[in-house]
């Protein structure tokens, strides 16, 4: 399948920690604050951090004019839909279960790759997809009754995951002649404007100064999610095969579940612990080096 370089492994570990812990952080942020406004403020804060990264690393900002149409499509599938739908879902669902539903993305990604792009999966790849799917099912086991009362949040999270999966496949195949960090900056910039417009249209009457927990949640999302994690994910998604990049982040919802249980007192069951093993098996199935064929 694919072996991670040391740099990719470090990025993956940091991404897992930052993104995994962000699920209860987002829940804290949107519980008493308008969700679209929360997301818009976070992105406005993160955009200068991302721009500073380009300046320090001397990465050019320019994207060829001919590629802007594709860039908009990548922004829509990788960021627009995901960030709007998932932040609305987080407000209605527990943070852990929103994470689980959002990270059904690898299952969607494998299916989209096979159906739309004729991607061939090895037996080990299908085993990884199956383990991830069973893990998600286990984590949802005790939520079925509650989810039946929140169909809107469930559908939003699943739609976000499926669209993100399509975006990951498209990003892997993009021909845009620009660095990944450059693409990340412009995709974030475009999405920030869209999010600000939506927040103004739908939440302006609810605007108030955020309290201290919400402020810290906005800072966390601005600096660590949009200043680092989003660019780190796009780098992995563009440099690794689609299945390897998607299944490699499957520990994020597990961390989201357990951190939500610790901070927000969300109840865990035996299925949560069994899912940890399955998620690790899914990751190992695509990242563990394959044996070399005998000469």
Provide an overview of this structure.
This protein has 295 residues and is mainly α. The protein has one domain.
Report the average pLDDT across residues.
85
Q: Give the number of DSSP strands.
A: 0
User: Would you list the SSEs in sequence order as H and E?
Assistant: HHHHHHHHHHHHH
Helix count, DSSP H or I runs of 4 or more residues:
13
- Report the biggest beta sheet as strand number plus sense, adding barrel if it closes: none
What is the CA–CA distance across the termini? 19 Å
Strand content: under 5%
Give the quaternary arrangement of the chains: single chain
Given as residue ranges, the uncertain stretches (5+ residues, pLDDT < 50) are none
Task: State the secondary-structure class.
Answer: mainly alpha
Query: Can you tell me the overall shape?
Result: globular
Q: Report Rg.
A: 19 Å
What percentage of residues falls in helices of 4 or more residues?
over 70%
Q: How many structurally independent domains?
A: 1
